[in-house]
Amino acid sequence: MRYRTLGRTGIQVGEIGVGCEGFLEKTPEEVSRWLDVCEAAGANCIDLYAPNPEFRSNLGMALRERREKFVLQAHLCSVWKDGQYKRTRDINQVREGFEDQLRRLETDYVEIGMVHYVDSLPDWEAVKTGPVMDYARELKAAGAVGCIGLSSHNPQVALAAVNSGLIDVLMFSVNPCYDLQPASEDVEELWAPRNYAAPLLNMDPERQELYETCQRLGVGITVMKAFGGGDLLSGELSPAGKALTAFQCLQYALDRPGVGCVMSGARSLEDLKRSLAFEEAPEEERDYAAALAALPKISWKGHCMYCGHCAPCPQGISVADVTKFLNLSLAQGSVPETVREHYAALPHGAGECVRCGACETRCPFAVPVMENMRRAAALFGR
After folding, report:
1. φ, ψ (nearest 5 deg) of residue 119
2. Architecture of domain 3-287
3. Over the stretch 214-262, which tens digit does the pLDDT of each residue have?
4. Is the pTM for the entire model greater than 0.85?
5. Would you list the domain boundaries of the chain?
């Protein structure tokens, strides 16, 4: 397992994490077997959005004697009411639900306390200024949560939360189809066939800004919906008009700025093992560039995907890294100090480009690489 630091939290997470779907409606013995597979593979980050009491209790039993080996992303505001899941902002229900979660997990803390499912700006304002955020900060001060997060499908909401400085981790839906869709308060719009009826061109600028802002401010992203609920893996169901592989979807998500971990949706142990096999898969099986460039309903022409197909540079320039730092600075309107430091640490600057053009001939997305190198050299001074 390859590990990444989750933004400014300092938490080390395996790049392949686990959603909780596969743990639901399982016996304690089955949950323990799932955790055995995770532990053996080094998949240490588990999302716990589901409030089902049986699931929480079973996972708590499975975590005995190995709690410290896992990073738990637990959700505030996701509660069990009248035998079913409910999202709430009622602070009494939020408190009761979180305390129940800790008891059933048999722990006194979780690494990430995630404010659950904030998809509208009015809801974000209510969370930010109301008792939910106060409670989250109270839990952090008491050590019951290591850091505060927020889950959202709306880039406008997510960006507002990231810029507020109140959250350290963002759980966000990331995949090659959703990334072309504009912000909406209705998550169902991400699936709506009418939104894919006409050809789509390039990443939505708010989503691009969101990823770059997370990278710049040190807000770690944990990814949900990397497979689009499984639709992207089916040629018949994919809104792109052609299937992608699970490995391609995982690599795409991991290449977005700010991403630390992808919560792989697995409904069976076989699904989980297939996602974990990503870590040992050859590069050509993880490569999504040619597949994305050939999608019949989508075009990323001119947009750098940080896929690395431009390499190798005969001058040793890491073109993808230089382009990422350039984009981060252009989005900010200046060069952030952290970006300047990371650029300075590169062995070779953009100024060493000899304009041979080899990178451009290899780029599946027709990115003007040489022009980007010229702009980067001017911006960073080398």
Report:
1. -115, 0
2. Alpha-Beta Barrel (3.20)
3. 999 999 999 999 998 788 888 777 777 788 899 999 999 999 999 999 9
4. no
5. 3-287, 319-380
